[in-house]
Amino acid sequence: MTGLLADSYLWLKALHVISVIAWMAGMLYLPRLFVYHAGEPAGSPTSEIFKVMERRLLRAIINPAMIASLLFGLLMLWANPGLLSQGWFHGKLLLIVAMFAMHHLYARWRKSFAADANSRGDGFYRMMNEVPTVLMIGIVLLAVAKPF
C-alpha cells in the first residue's frame, strides 16, 4: 500500500463499516415492512403508507448506503490489491454478490407492492428477511477471522 489511499486506509475502512451498517439496517427492515404490507388489502390506506415507507427506505437509505459500501470497499481494494490473493476474500466476495442479488430482489418486490401486484404472502417475506442476516454473518466472520 502506497500513496494517499494507503495513508487513508483506516478512514476508508471506517467509512466502509459505517456504510455497511446503514445498508444492513435497511436490508433487515425492508422485508419486515413487506411482511406487514403483505397482510394489507391492496389500495387500503395502510397499504399506501407502506408503499411510501418502502420507497423512501430503499431510495434514501438502502441504495445510497449500498453505493457507499461498494465505493469504499473498492477504494480499500485499490489501496490493498493483495486482498485478491487471499482465500477468505474470495468467499467474502461471493457472499457480497449474493447480498447484491438480495438487494435487487427487494427492489423488484417493492415495485410489485407499489403496483398492487404482490402475489406472495407474509410467510415468504419472513423467510426472505433472514437471508441478509445469514449473509452478513458469513461476511463478517470471513472478514474478521480470515479462516483461510
Structure description:
The structure is a single chain. This protein is an all-alpha fold. It contains six helices and no strands. The chain has one domain. Helices cover 81% and strands 0% of the residues. Helix 2 (9-38) packs antiparallel against helix 3 (45-79), helix 2 packs antiparallel against helix 5 and helix 3 runs antiparallel to helix 4 (87-114). It is elongated, with a radius of gyration of 18 Å. It starts with a helix and ends with a helix.
Q: How many β-strand stretches?
A: 0
Instruction: Return the average pLDDT rounded to an integer.
Output: 96
* Cα gyration radius (Å): 18 Å
Structural class: mainly alpha
Domain count, please report it. 1
Helix share, percent: over 70%
Number of helices: 6
> For the terminal residues, how far apart are their CA atoms?
22 Å
Low-pLDDT windows of residues: none
Which of globular, elongated, flat, extended, rod-shaped describes the shape?
elongated
